[in-house]
Amino acid sequence: MNKYVVIALIICCVSFSINAQYLLQLNEVISLAQENSIDAKLAETQKENAYWSYRTFRSEYNPRLFLSGSLPGYNRDFNENRLDNGEIAYQTREQLQSNLRLGLYQPISFTGGEISINSQVRQFQDLNNDATQWNSTLVNIELNQPLFDFNELKWNKLTEPKVYEESKRSYVEETEAISQEAVQLFFDYIDQQIGLQIAEYNLGKNDTIYRIEEGRYNIGTATEDDLLNVQLQLLTSQGQITQAELDLRQASLELRRYIGLANDTTKITLRLPEELPEFEIDLASALEYAKRNRADYIAFERNRIEAARDVAQAKASRFYAELRASFGLNDAAATFNETYVDPNNQQVFDVQLGLPILDWGRGKSRVKQAQAIQQLTEYTIQQQLQNFEQEIITLVGRIEVLRKQIEIKKKGDEVAQKRYDVAQNRYLIGKTSITDLTLALEQKDNAKREYVNALRDFWDSYYMLRRLTLYDFAADKLLYTIDE
User: Fold this and answer.
1) Is the domain of 378 the same as that of 424?
2) Phi and psi of 204, rounded to 5°?
3) DSSP secondary-structure letter at 339?
4) 467 falls in which pLDDT band (50, 70, 90)?
5) Is 49 a member of any domain?
6) Residues 37, 128: one domain?
7) How confident is the model at residue 349 (pLDDT cuts 50, 70, 90)?
8) Which residues lie closer than 8 Å to 203 by C-beta, 6 or more apart?
């Protein structure tokens, strides 16, 4: 989402009372995190690096036009010259040499060789004798072809597109992981926000109860023990307020830092995401989405290819053979123009071989090691596939259970609040003890926290399912397509 759109979204949800504050929902916090968090910037940078790495790979199969040469190089020294009578004379020489070469090179991916077309000119000047020589190659076609060697170009064509595809899917998965982290920080903050609300509510109630109990004690209808018990609860509530404010401040710092509001001192208030998205999860579909979209499954295919590549490389490294052939037109003359008048043919044909006679089983050991790693890779992939499928199965079942848990916890929260209200009314008319009222208070607080934790677990599981399948079941759409 564009940064300005996100900012506009936040401005729209700002509510001003006596003190300005941000009223944020879960999806707004997630959008801010995906736009501003360090994790988001790291993911974006990794995505860009992967793109340029893929562009570099693609460029390796394109022709290269390369110009090279040297400026006139000056040389002045004494040269050893053996005379006809056997004597050695040292004669001074002063020379200039330069060359220029233009070559067009094209890799041959299916053979691993390279073909090139070159043109070259050289100049030699003997300054002592005022003589100049030119040597030119009008055109030269050259083929360099390894025989039975490891073809890196061919294997890169199989692995590099998968690496790039894997990186694009990993970027979407990382975005969903950022959503998960934002969910955790959101609920960390809302836990403390609700904790402070509970503490403030309890402080008000306990202050009222203390005043009532103090009045009863003064008229002799309450014991000193009851009064001290109520006073202790009041002091506890005051301490809980202080701790809750400290915890909320810490949670606020962590949330602000992650969503890019670290330097904004405006108060944040979060809205509890009680409205759950309506969707049904078909287990078979969830598994299919994971296999089709998840980066790990692309990585499995890539790992298999890389293991096979390593075996092929180990086999090819046992011996060496290369063919080199060229044909061109070449000539030398005293002037530059004369070298192109009637050039001569120039041919080269050469085959180089390298075959170990005795390597004490080194080549065979390398092949066997590569084959063992290939088998290990296959077993590891099978184990990981089972783990991933089990993870999806468990998560799908967990989400359905959490929906029911939320309904139960919400009802429990309502019942606990009502029970406390009833207990408080009964206490005010002297029909129940302070102990029963304290128990009802604790149950009320625990029920509220259990309800919030159930919501946390649901939303965390929901975004985890999105990350594992790259599919939004609520909107019924893919989070990633190959055409992206």
Assistant:
1) yes
2) -65, -45
3) G
4) very high
5) yes
6) no
7) low
8) 234, 237, 238, 240, 241
Strands lying side by side in the sheet with 64-82: 64-82, 88-108, 113-126, 131-146, 320-333, 344-354
Q: Domain residues for 262?
A: 3-56+156-304+372-478
User: Following DSSP, what letter does each residue of 139-185 receive, concatenated?
Assistant: EEEEEEEESS---HHHHHHHHHHHHHHHHHHHHHHHHHHHHHHHHHH
Query: Are residue 251 and residue 181 in the same domain, yes or no?
Result: yes
End-to-end CA distance of the chain: 15
- 328, 355, 382 — which closes off a domain? 355
Residues near 135 by beta carbon (within 8 Å), at least 6 away in sequence:
121, 122, 123, 124, 330, 331, 332, 339
- The Cα 259–Cα 433 span in angstroms is 48
- What is the average pLDDT across 421-431? 84
For residues 250 and 264, give the distance between their C-alpha atoms in angstroms, rounded to a whole number: 15
Q: Is residue 314 part of a domain?
A: no
Q: Tokens in use for 20?
A: 């300005």
364 within a domain of the structure (yes/no): no
**Residue 355: closest CA among 399, 388, 318:** 318
Is 311 part of any domain? Answer: no
- Confidence label for 174 from pLDDT (cuts 50, 70 and 90): very high
More confident residue, 347 or 182: 182
DSSP 340: G
DSSP string for 368-396: HHHHHHHHHHHHHHHHHHHHHHHHHHHHH
Residue 10 predicted with pLDDT over 50: no
Q: In this structure, are residues 67 and 52 in contact, taking their beta carbons and an 8 Å threshold?
A: no
Q: What number of residues does the chain have?
A: 484
**b vs e for 313-348, b when ≥16 Cβ sit within 10 Å of the residue's Cβ?**
bbbbebeeebeeebebbbbebeeeeebeeebeeeee
Q: What is the CATH number of the domain that holds 457?
A: 1.20.1600.10
For 430: left if phi > 0, alpha if psi spans -120 to 50, otherwise beta; the answer is: left
Query: What's the whole-number average pLDDT of the chain?
Result: 84
- Closest by CA position to 164, among listed 50, 244, 325: 50
